[in-house]
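Could you help me review a protein record that somebody else here produced? What it holds is a sequence and that sequence's fold in token form. I have pasted the whole thing underneath without changing anything:
=====
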Amino acid sequence: MSVNVKTGIDVLEKEGFTRFKNQRIGLIINPSSVNRNLESTLNIFQRNKINITALFSPEHGVKGELQDQEECMSFIDKKTRIPVYSLYGKQLDPDKKMLEDVDTLVFDIQDIGARYYTYIWTMALSMGKAEQYHKRFIVLDRPNPINGLNIEGPILEKDYESFVGLFPIPIRHGMTIGELACMFNEEFNIGVELEVIKMEGWKRILWFDETSLPWVPPSPNMPTLDAATLYPGMCLLEGTNLSEGRGTMKPFEFFGAPWLKSGLVLKKFKNLGDCRFRSLYFKPLWSKYKGETCAGFQLHITNRKRFKPVRTALEIIYAVRKTHPQDFEWRKPPYEFEEEKLPFDILIGNSMIRRMIEDECFIEEIETVCNEGIEEFKEIRKRYLLYE
């Protein structure tokens, strides 16, 4: 099945740019900001004679060349002479000076559908500053690439807010970037003048490879839809001393460590029905264990509709900790601008799940605790869904 989906920028091109007449526009973009013909959003706005006065750079940079947690720098773009302001580094949101020549902020970045993917928080913080300084905010909507139905993982608890989670939503939220903007604006009292340019043709059941849209990696370690499908779970390995595959050609599909004994780990897995584990060795070119040979696995998803990435990652962490008590460690702070709490705790959104793993509770009990609050979230979420 393949559906002819038009993203927000495609719809905007069709409708025309009259809403931007006599406006000074700031674009929050990166390499994923393209139409279905792979023309960049910046080029499209300029081709339509729109006055672009500022660009804003999320994590990985406006050009997409920076690795995770690598600080972005502000600069003047040599080609366009437009100032590019960093929203990932010393500050995470635009200040008054950055917005003084802007009337409307436009956000157009492909999200992945997981709470800890930082673009949604760049959007939320930018919405807050747009409201503070009386600017309009427009979101050009894009698909949730891992469908808009499946929801999994704990609701972020109070006191665990960070730049990988500012508001109480589950890890896998099943919403588009535009729907999240509507929810953030109303539920969390941002109150900005907001407009979402909806997609055409997208339905919640669709995965990205069913949309007829080209996949453009929204970040350096998100090269494929398979990586995005695994990411809501396998990103949790960032909170441990296991490699999550960064520095390899298969980030989030590969995992392991130099000290891992693959055979011991494999025996501990209980539910392998929707994915298979293939033993392998890999040597990361950067990130954890750079230049060291790691033993580990590649995950092969066999049924993506039923696959539970969060549960799978928790089973991996549980099994590795159980079989390698002298080697496994929780990663120490700092992480994503959080100086005190354990990285795993701010990723999962609480400390209880880590304690349950340490207490060797049954994985079924852990999964039950993980999914508490999802039904209540679904009721809130209903009010902001824009698509069938």
About this structure: Strands lie at 24-29, 51-57, 75-76, 83-86, 104-108, 136-140, 193-197, 254-257, 275-282, 294-301.
